TrEMBL record:
Keywords: Cytoplasm, Methyltransferase, Ribonucleoprotein, Ribosomal protein, S-adenosyl-L-methionine, Transferase. Coiled coil: none annotated. Its main location: cytoplasm. GO terms for molecular function: methyltransferase activity. HAMAP family: Methyltr_PrmA. CDD domains: AdoMet_MTases (cd02440). The gene is prmA. This is Ribosomal protein L11 methyltransferase. InterPro entries: Ribosomal_L11_MeTrfase_PrmA, Ribosomal_PrmA_MeTrfase, SAM-dependent_MTases_sf. The keyword Transmembrane helix does not apply.
């Protein structure tokens, strides 16, 4: 189906407020919404809404959201032809190495080395190609934790493209539950799981936090990895603590350096110990373990 892209530029704070309101205003449609960091120093962020269906109605609702937030921002509209989004999103995508992992698109298969754990990713509209500091930080830390602890199972909460779930399945050959709040991401995740030949190990589902019956069947988990954002990570700290096995590990990312202490404190309050933190491009990846 053809799509219309409605987009506008805003400060980070405005973009986050718009994003939160759009999620509510367009809840039923489930259309993808994205915030792109265009220029962090000048605080320019681009909010895009990909509309399948009545674009006039969507634009009117978006204007209404802006009015309600008292933001006077121009909405730009772009009709998107039927194109191969996956191919487009991979144009110019450079492969990335993080620890032993080599994350690449289909056009860079020939750059794989024998010693690599290669992960082929078609990112499409889902987040996670290994380029972001948070994904790369998670890949590095999960390799260290898996090698040290040999976990028996894992949860990748906020799986996006499934890059971390695939990394876990390839490195440790353990059952991995991969969840995401966004059904589009779950479709992309599931396709990537198939593409990388790890469908026997990875189950993908749409879920918000731990709100899904699957958690009654799965878990507790020896390893939970969640690259979402500081806010939701703090919110779900009690459930995280309830779903981690004694002796297990929690890897948290999507956290800005200045948010580090408040995330760690909220997990310490749930009976976890802070083990270590990895810094990458202004983002942190945090390793915690339940108290013995
Ligand atoms: C930053 S991306 C991370 C993708 C991938 N795991 C990676 O490391 O590259 C965060 C993902 O978490 C999902 N997400 C955000 N909040 C969530 C929640 N409460 N429960 C489940 N998924 C969530 C988003 O839809 C998004 O796909």
């Amino acid at each position: 189906m053809s799509q219309t892209r409605l987009h506008l530029t805003a400060s980070k704070n405005e973009a986050e407020r718009i994003f939160a309101s759009l999620e509510t205003a367009f809840e039923e449609e489930g259309w993808p919404i994205a915030i792109l960091e265009v220029d962090e120093e000048r605080d320019i962020h681009e909010v895009s809404l990909y509309v399948e269906g009545d674009a006039d109605e969507a634009q009117a609702r978006l204007s209404h959201v802006l009015q309600a937030l008292t933001l006077n921002l121009a909405i730009e509209r772009e009709e998107l032809p039927d194109i191969d989004w996956v191919a487009l999103s991979l144009e110019g995508l450079q492969p990335v190495r993080a620890g032993r992992f080599f994350v690449h698109g289909s056009h860079d298969r020939d750059q794989r080395r024998n010693s690599d754990i290669a992960i082929e990713i078609e990112a499409g509209l889902a987040f996670g190609t290994g380029h972001h500091g948070t994904t790369a930080g998670c890949l590095e830390m999960l390799e260290q934790v898996v090698n040290a602890e040999q976990p028996a199972n894992a949860l990748d909460l906020g799986t996006g493209s499934a890059v971390l779930a695939i990394a876990l399945a390839k490195l440790a050959a353990i059952p991995v539950l991969a969840t995401d709040i966004d059904p589009v991401a779950v479709e992309v995740a599931s396709a990537n799981v198939q593409l990388n030949g790890v469908a026997d190990h990875v189950e993908t589902i749409t879920a918000t936090g731990f709100d899904h019956p699957v958690f009654a069947r799965h878990g507790p988990f020896a390893l939970i990895i969640a690259n979402i954002l500081a806010g939701p990570l703090i919110e779900i700290a009690p459930q995280m603590a309830a779903h981690i096995r004694p002796g297990g590990s929690l890897i948290l990312s999507g956290i800005l350096e200045r948010q580090h202490d408040s995330v760690v404190e909220s997990y310490i309050a749930q009976g976890l110990t802070h083990i270590t933190t990895l810094h990458r491009e202004g983002w942190v990846t945090i390793h915690l373990k339940p108290n013995a």
